[in-house]
Amino acid sequence: MAKKKTLTTTHNHLRHIDQTCLWHPFTQMQEYARTEPLIIERGKGSYLYDHEGRRYIDGVSSLWVLVHGHGTPAIDRAMISQIRRLSHSTLLGLTHEPAIRLAEKLVAITPSGLTKVFYSDNGSTAVEIGLKIAFQYWQQVSATTRKKKRFLSLTNAYHGDTLGAVSVGGIDLFHRIYRPLLFRAYKAPSPYCYRCAFKLSYPGCGMACLERFAEILKKHHHELAACIMEPLVQGAAGMIVFPRGYLREARALCARYDVLFIADEVAVGFGRTGRMFACEHERVRPDLMAVAKGITGGTLPLAATLATDRIYEAFLGKPEECKTFYHGHTYTGNPIACAAALANLELFERTAVLEHLQPKIGLLKKRLEHFWNLAHVGDIRQQGFMVGIELVAHKKTKARYPLAAQMGHRVILAARARGVIIRPLGDVIVLMPPLSISVDELSTLLDVVYDSIKTVTER
Ligand SMILES: *Cc1c(COP(=O)(O)O)cnc(C)c1O
């Protein structure tokens, strides 16, 4: 009895402080303040638990980061053992074993040609680093390439929230307001087949979006430093899955026009798409690659930008030549985070994560077919363990719901009441379960999401 009372008191107190002191990311706080906050207390496997012990399936892997679930003993042990030795030491001029071993591992598992690892601590910085390296490369590699200062990206792209990443972003809702602060980037149309910019359909379209991409390259390659894209899936735009061949062709075009290709594997990397990296699906070898989210299995912030020898060598010279890459964050390559990443990657191999994932991807695909019956499901997109279910007001016209209807949000609240945590992207319901989720848990997740969509949209 006494324990229960303390719990309630603590909860009310925490709730009060949460509402008075905490500003949540990507959250309209006026709305948030009106709802009961969900205070998560612990996590185990595919589940999160709130302060009252209520259990929820973590259907979006705590924002797309979980690989083996919450509380993976092997990763926890690696972190604890690293903490006992060294919690932090800088990589500016010094080095340490976890950063060294992880760099070797990353070079070994990423597409061939990527041989150098530059650490940072989140996806946005990994992208910024890619952009800055690409820019500086052309300034230094030869006197005739210094006009290559601009970037090409896709509409609907999401590359993070810092200003460089926003400059190459293409999601109006998030990015429009900051436009006066941004550098201008060329934008090619997103290969968003469901809402094709050319009103065509694949494959009859002959990938008209790629033709537009090629035109921009042809016209502007002399001023383009690099092209950046999310390989295979534009995540934050609502899981927009590329038509087959788009990625490979886009990469080949960049090579033909000598424009560097930056693969932003922050969301798709580390098994999400069914392969270790999305680039592997189309045998793409980027010049630069950004990784983050799944790198530590969902335990600590860590990111890396990988580069080829060709790029790296343009930064070599005597100190007075000032070719150094003048960039580095204080906690870059933190040893505990690197130890967690190493343990994560060891588990990938030891427990054959990708092998066990394939039948679950098949099951997910099969179960999702049933969702087409729902009156307001306009499109269902899946690539591996990334799913977007796009809700529409009218199936025939593909008309969107008004923003004020908050359909996506209402669906996730319905799911929450049924023991599932998911987070929508507008009116796209996202499913990103931990790669380790069991068949039964996956099945429950799908049942709950189906019911939630039906209840909210067909009422
Ligand atoms: C999440 C994400 C980022 C940004 O990563 P943060 O760690 O949130 O800064 C960049 N690119 C893509 C594709 C992402 O999904």
How would you describe this structure to a colleague?
- The protein has 459 residues and is an alpha/beta fold.
- It has 2 domains: 38-68 and 353-457, Alpha-Beta Complex (Aspartate Aminotransferase, domain 1); 74-350, Aspartate Aminotransferase, domain 2, CATH 3.40.640.
- It has 15 helices and 16 strands.
- The strands form 4 sheets. A 7-stranded mixed β-sheet has the order 4-12-11-10-7-5-6, with helices on both faces.
- A hairpin with a 4-residue loop joins strand 2 (47-50) and strand 3 (55-58).
- Helix 5 (97-109) packs across helix 12.
- The chain is globular, with a radius of gyration of 23 Å.
- Pyridoxal-5'-phosphate binds at residues 122-124, 127, 158-160, 230, 235-236, 264, 266-267, 292-293.
Describe the structure concisely for a colleague.
This protein has 15 helices and 16 strands. With 459 residues, the protein is an alpha/beta fold.
What labels would you give this structure?
459 residues; alpha/beta; Aspartate Aminotransferase, domain 1; Aspartate Aminotransferase, domain 2; 2 domains; four-stranded mixed sheet; 15 helices; 16% strand; globular; binds pyridoxal-5'-phosphate
Write the layout of secondary structure elements.
Elements lengths: L1 H20 L7 H4 L7 E5 L2 E4 L4 E4 L2 H4 L8 H13 L11 H13 L4 E7 L2 H19 L8 E5 L8 H5 L4 H4 L10 E3 L19 H13 L3 E6 L3 E2 L5 E2 L4 H11 L3 E5 L23 E4 L11 E6 H5 L21 H16 L2 H17 L7 E7 L2 E6 L15 H11 L2 E2 L6 E4 L7 H19 L2
Parallel strand pairs: 3-15, 5-6, 5-7, 7-10, 10-11
Antiparallel strand pairs: 1-2, 2-3, 4-12, 8-9, 11-12, 13-14, 14-16
The chain binds pyridoxal-5'-phosphate (PLP).
